[in-house]
Task: structure prediction
Amino acid sequence: MKWIYLLIAGVLEITWAVAMKMSNGFTVLVPSVITGIGYIASAVFLAIALKQLPLGTAYAMWTGMGILGTTLLGVFLFHEKLSVPQVICVILIVIGIAGLKILAKD
Result:
């Protein structure tokens, strides 16, 4: 369950970050509310996962999921451009997340 909680925390991190972009500086109500709720919920699920996972591993995976998700959604939802070096760096982050999961002591 600890990995499920961490995954939920990561998805919620992506949710609040994308909602924050959509809130236009907290001037649009619904995305602003989603940002606040998502932020708190993400922290709660991360805290639950941290009861059983090492801090460094869990935090790196949580932020890595957020980087990957927000980068992809930025491209698809907001038409943001990625350079080849940026794509390579995101791929390295994905490799790092996979490595942390593979090497984690359950």
